[in-house]
Amino acid sequence: MSTAATFTAARNLDEVGVRRNLLEDLALKILYMEGELSLRELAAEMCVGLAIVEEIFQRLRRDQLCEVTGMTIGVHRIAPTSAGKSRALELLAQNQYAGPAPVSLKDYVERVHAQSVREMRVHPPDVQKAFEHLVMDPRILGQLGTAVVSGRAIFLYGPSGTGKTTIADTLSRLFRYDQVWLPYAVEVDGQIITVYDSVVHEKIDRPMSHENDARWVLCRRPRVVVGGELTIEMLDLQFNPATKFYAGPVQMKANNGLLIVDDFGRQRLRPEELLNRWVVPLDRRIDFLTLAGGKKIEIPFDMFVVFATNIDPSELVDEAFLRRIQTKIKIGSVTHEQFHEIFRRVCSEFEVRYEAEAVDKLIEQIEEENKQPLRPCYPRDLVQQVCWAARYERREPQLDQETLRQACHNYFLQG
Predict the structure, then answer these.
(1) What long-range pairs does 39-43 form, CB within 8 A, spacing at least 24?
(2) What is the pTM of this model?
(3) Are residues 250 and 234 in contact, defined by beta-carbon separation less than 8 angstroms?
(4) Which residues contact 111 (CB under 8 A, 6 or more apart)?
(5) Per-residue pLDDT for 357 more than 70?
(6) Is 297 exposed, middle or buried (0-12, 13-18, 19+ CB in 10 A)?
(7) Which domains does the chain carry?
(8) Are 344 and 300 spatial neighbours (Cβ–Cβ below 8 Å)?
(9) SS3 category, 105
């Protein structure tokens, strides 16, 4: 596991990297919303050092926007004046962001490059450990490991029920070994873009030195999954007309991590739209986002993208797009031996006695009667059918030819 290098906290306003006025406005909005704070509490809200808040306080007091109300452990307690409240309301009408101080776009870009997925160190033992709970062909494990090292996008394709989504999700175990820093927010031309998302990102709780820049959050490498809900609008900055600041799009939240596009080809946007939107980012590893006024900003497109689909990729996208997907891995049916091993593991999980002879008969029925290939999803699905029937009949679940035949009758289309 690699540990991301820490950030040294800014010692004064000039070292923060964003405009002084923006920080003063942010402090005044927080003060207005909280009513009264000590300078130390304000510093914690803004995720900056006490010395920086002292500078901001002196400026706000000079402009008669805040006043001292007392002392707490040797530092001032302050509250907005009437003029300060009026000014805060004007600022909140412009945008309602009142959280940690943002980092500059320049600092964000530099940090993403320094934590690139291309710098991940992955070797065969790592991949074997990550996938040890699955029955996998060693050849496919080798393809997956090589693809992760490349840092490039991959296609996982094949019939439904072959485990593509499970494999894509398991790849995130490789990304959990690393730690990266994500900003709470990024500032661009006075506009705020939030990046850290507690729903998407897994924060690592550990004691932080007061010398660390608290505007950055230490997290596992991101894992972002999008499916049929994906729209073209989700690929650009999300402007909230009520709060008047932006949320980063899915690919910005996935930077330095893993982005899974599940059920590719079944999204609300056509594959051609995604092709046109991402053809440059996939090739050049940069993306362009548009602010509300029309200005475009350039950010890194640094993530391992997995397209999982049960549709033939050549039917979804053209050759130019396929060329940019360096690795295409077909996930198909399993062998008789692999099917038995999956069944053993599923039976162990459900505490049902495994019967090899019954599974042999099941294989024969699936292939000859139901005319289906052996798919990795069948053992779990059929054992669940056996357990449901046993629960209904108030008996212990038992794996035999009769219970499996009834499970198949329920599970597969007849005729």
Answers:
(1) 39/75, 39/76, 39/77, 39/78, 40/72, 40/73, 40/75, 42/78
(2) 0.89
(3) yes
(4) 181, 183, 216
(5) yes
(6) middle
(7) 19-99 (1.10.10.10), 108-118+133-330 (3.40.50.300), 336-411 (1.10.8)
(8) no
(9) helix
